Write a sequence for this structure.
């Protein structure tokens, strides 16, 4: 099974993700594969600490880091699922085929 297929399967199985996202997961575009690196975790720490985009951004960076730190060097797939009013960024651990992080971004 390729990364996109694993991503779709993981999102569909995740009861934590809203049902409309699970229903639209087949519309995901590219699913980028790669490891969660220490340099990425360091970036999240800096963004959280320096707060360049305000408190909401800092909170999101802290949540990302909290969810992803246990997966250092793990192979992951990341995709964006677009709905009418929101886009969802979802990160999946390829090995366990589980969603490790997702976040909603409301369209303006």
């Amino acid at each position: 099974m390729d990364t996109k297929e694993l991503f779709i399967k993981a999102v569909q199985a995740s009861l934590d993700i809203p049902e409309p996202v699970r229903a639209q997961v087949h519309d995901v575009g590219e699913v980028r594969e790669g490891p969660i690196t220490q340099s990425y975790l360091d970036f999240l720490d800096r963004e959280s600490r320096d707060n360049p985009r305000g408190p909401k951004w800092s909170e999101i960076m802290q949540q990302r880091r909290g969810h992803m730190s246990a997966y250092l060097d793990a192979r992951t797939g990341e995709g964006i699922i677009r709905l009418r009013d929101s886009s969802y960024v979802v990160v999946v651990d390829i090995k366990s085929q589980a969603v490790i992080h997702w976040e909603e971004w409301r369209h303006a």
Summary: The chain has a mean pLDDT of 94. The two ends are 36 Å apart (CA to CA). The first strand starts at residue 32 and ends at 35. The chain has four helices and four strands.
